């Protein structure tokens, strides 16, 4: 998994794809 909540830079860079971010966040919360 390339998405890490601790990586604020990646989070900001992926804000443009909000739907993708939401899916990643959901996966993180479930994990």
Automatic annotation (TrEMBL):
InterPro entries reported for this sequence: NanQ/TabA/YiaL_sf
Domain of life according to the entry: Bacteria
Name of the protein: YhcH/YjgK/YiaL family protein
């Amino acid at each position: 998994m390339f998405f890490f909540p601790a990586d604020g830079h990646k989070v900001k860079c992926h804000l443009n794809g909000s739907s993708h971010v939401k899916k990643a966040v959901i996966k993180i919360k479930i994990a």
